[in-house]
Amino acid sequence: MSGTVATAPTLPATPAAETLRRANAFQRLLRRPAAMLGLVVVLAFIVIAAGAPWIAPYDPAATSWSAIRKAPSFAHWMGTDELGRDAMSRLIWGARASMLAGVVSVAIALALGVPLGLVAGYAGGWTDAAISRFTDALLACPFLILAIAMAAFLGPSLTNAMIAIGVSAMPIFIRLTRGQVLAVKVEDYVEAARAVGNPHARILLRHILPNIVPPLIVQATLTIASAIVAESSLSFLGLGQQPPAPSWGSMLNTARNFMTQAPWLAFWPGVTICVVVFAFNLLGDGLRDALDPKEG
Amino acid sequence: MQGFLLSRLAISMPTLLIVTVLVFGLQSLLPGDIALVLAGEENDPAGIAFIREKYRLDDPVPIRYLAWLVQVVQGDLGHSIKTQIPVTDLILQKLPVTAQLAFWSMLVALLIGIPAGIIAAVKKGTALDHTANAVGLAGLSIPNFWLGIMLIMVVAVEWGALPPGGYTPPTESLADNLAGMIMPAFVLGSGIAAVFMRHTRSAMLSALTADYVRTARAKGLFERTVIVKHALRNALVPVITLGALELGQLFSGAVLTETVFNIPGFGRLVVEAVFNRDYAVVQGVVLFTATAYILLNLLADLLYALVNPRLRG
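^ inputs. structure came back:
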C-alpha cells in the first residue's frame, strides 16, 4: 500500500443509477409487510425510549411500601415490583438501556470492525493474514462468554457492557467487510480509480466503502437484535445496568425470586425483549431481501 | 486431503496462539494495580508483595506472558484465587455436567431444526413454510433465560410436571437426572434449532433446484426418495460444519441456562467466578472454551473433508 498522487481526480460516479438502485431497494422493502411491521415496532420502541420521561406514568425509582408486589390493576397496568415500584414505568425506562446498548454496541463493533476489514481485504498478504487470525481468535471465544469475561474485568456497568458487547461483535464485521472488499476490489471501477492514480485511502473510502454498505446495514440491524439480547443477558447476570436504574434484564433477574408470588414481574420484560428482538430480526431479514440485487 | 488438513492446522495454530494473547490481555482491562485487585480485601503489604512475586507482576508483560504460556501448555491454568483449587481441576469437575446438557440440547436442536427446515423447503411459499419461518425467527428472538423462567413457572410450579431446577448425577438416579435435563435441554436447544432450521431450509432449497435432483425426478423416482436420498444427503453436508460452529452458542447459552436452572456446570462456574472476582477461573474458562471451539472446528473440517469427495483428493 505505497502512497500515490494525492491530487488525482475521483472517477465520475453515476449518481442517477445509484439513486435508482436505492429507490428500488426501498420500494422492495415497502412491499414486504413483515419488514414494515418490524420497522414500525422498532420506531415505536425508539419513540418510547426517547420519550420515557413523558410516557412513563410513574417515577421508575419511586418506591411505595404500601404497593409491594401488587398484581396488575387500573392504577398499575403491569403491577408493582418488590419495592412497590411501577413495573410499566420501569419497563418504559428500561427501553432506554436496551435500545442504547443495541445501537452503541453495534456502533463500536462497526467503528472497529469496518476499518480492520477494509485494510485486511484491500492490503492482502501478511496484513490480511494477521487481521484474519486475530478475527478467528475473537470468533473462537463464544460471544457471551467473552462479553461476560470483559464485563467482569472492566467492572459491572452499562457502559462497560456496551464496550464488551461491541468488542465481542466486532469480528463479524471484520469478516463481512473483508469478504465484501475482496469481491469489490477486482471490479473495473476500482481498477480504473487505481489507474488514474487515486491514493489507497481515497479508493477505500470513496470507491469501495460506499459499495459495501448494504450488507453492513443488514448485518448491523441483525446484530442490534443480538446486542439487545446480550445486554439483557449481562444485566440478568448482574453485569450490565446496575440498580436502581431499570433494565429489562435486571428486572428479570429480580423477578426470578418472586416467580410464585408475582409472576407478572417476569412476564412483561421477557415479552418486551422478544418483541423488540423479533422486530429487528424481521427488519434485518427484509432489508437483506430488499438490498439483494438478485431480487431485482 | 493431506494438504487441506495441513492448511487448516496452519491456520488453527496461530489462531490458538492469538487466543492465548487475548486471554492473557484480559488482565490489562483490570482498573488500577493488578496486585491490589487480586489481593481483594487483603491490604497487608506482605500479602500484596507475595501476590506481586507469585504472578511476576514486576516483570515486563512479554516475560509474564511467556511464563504464563509455558504453564498453560503444561495444562496449568493457575489456581482459583478463592478456593486455591487448580483451575484445570475445576473445569474438569464441571465439564461432564455441561457436556451432558450440551448433548441433549444438540439432540433437541437436530430433531426440531432439521425436519422443520426440510418441510419448509419442500413446502416453499405455503402456509407451512411461512409458519416454520416465523417460528424459526421467534426461536432466535426469545432469550433462553426468559424461556427458562417461563417454563419453570408453568411446567414446574403450576403443573408440577418436572423439577424446577437442580442436578442429579446419572449415577445417583438416571430418571431424576433425565427429568432434570428436559427443560434446560429444550431451552438451550430451541434457539439452536431455529438456526438449524434456517440453514437446512436454505441448503435444501439450493439442492432441490440442482441438476442432479432434476435428473433423479426425470428417472421417475418417488418424490420421497428424491428428497431424502438425493437432496437431503447433499444439503446436510454443511450442517456438520454448522454443528461445530454452534458450539460457541451452546457454551454461551449454557451460562444462562445453568444459572436459571441452578445446574452446577461450566456456565455456573464462570458466573460464580465473576462475582468472586476469581479472574484466573474466568481466564481459564475463556481459554478452555476457545480452544475447544478451535479443535472441534478442526474436527468438523476433517469430517467435512471425509464426506466431501472433492476434498478427498
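The two ends of chain B are 6 Å apart (CA to CA). Chain B has two domains: 2-73, 87-312.
thumbs up if we can close this ticket
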